[in-house]
Specification:
It is built from one helix and no strands. The N and C termini lie far apart (59 Å). With 40 residues, the protein is mainly alpha-helical.
Length: 40
């Protein structure tokens, strides 16, 4: 049982990490778009 719980926590952590990375990527994209906007 203990192992299962740990696995679950690890999965959640992984998902959170992926979500964070996705968010950072989105922010980066928005930043890039804004930069392009500024140049025009």
């Amino acid at each position: 049982m203990e192992m299962l719980l740990n696995d679950n926590k690890q999965d959640q952590q992984d998902q959170q990490d992926q979500q964070d990375q996705q968010d950072q990527q989105d922010q980066q994209d928005q930043q890039d778009q804004q930069d392009q906007q500024d140049q025009q």
